[in-house]
Amino acid sequence: MLEEAQPVLNIPSLRNQVTPQEWKARVDLAACYRLTAHYGMSDMIANHISCRVPGEEGAFLINAYGLMYEEITASSLIKIDVKGNVLLKPDFGGLEYGINRAGYVIHGAIHERRHDLDCVIHTHTWPGMAVSSLECGLLPMNQTAMRFLKIAYHDYEGVVLDVAMQDKLVADLGDSNAMILRNHGLLTVGHSIAEAFNAMHRLELSCKAQLAAMACNVPLVQVRREVLEETWNNYQPKTRRPYGVMEWPALLRMLDRLDPSYRS
After folding, report:
1. Which of 16, 51, 72, 95 could form a disulfide linkage to 33, CB 3.0–4.6 angstroms apart?
2. What is the pTM of this model?
3. Topology of 15-257 in CATH?
């Protein structure tokens, strides 16, 4: 007879084992996982969100392979370096969760080569996978999608398990904050967790809107190129405040109302 599973994992707190700066990053990253689940962008235990550890060169936080996004907490995150070595692992009891290699290869590639970025989000949502499989890619067919007018693309070369794929991945990302992984899914990056989440939320909405419009099987309204360029420019960091800053405290308040356990 199978032993009844625990409804909630009791993971000992790591708060006293890390710096205050790392603990804040852990809380924000755990919140990002919960928000990704809340907005329907998770894929059971698959995919990853990572963030750089403040003040610790080459170290970043990532999810344990085996946890649902909705149960991730600040203390359940694993700290690894850009080579995939585990630096700090929570006590999972008999579960002995580790990291997923594909997550390390993708996220480690960016954290090792792009020191200006703090957060990387990768998803396998059905709208993202659908648009990633379209030859046309993401169309700038509405104001939200125009923000991604110059989105990056990375061709599919198999499951990302080989570190030899890392250079091409980062080269294709370039200076963009969002990339469509062809026949795979979506990826966003940011100078903060809030910024990366904002980009992913808007990119997901853009994919959903495109699929809905294309399903109507009628001609799409075209926008003049100069208007597309102007709109894209209005969304760039040099012309507006950083994304995510204003809504992040409100999003945390929402999570605190729903389930504040992400902070533990």
Report:
1. 72
2. 0.94
3. L-fuculose-1-phosphate Aldolase (3.40.225)
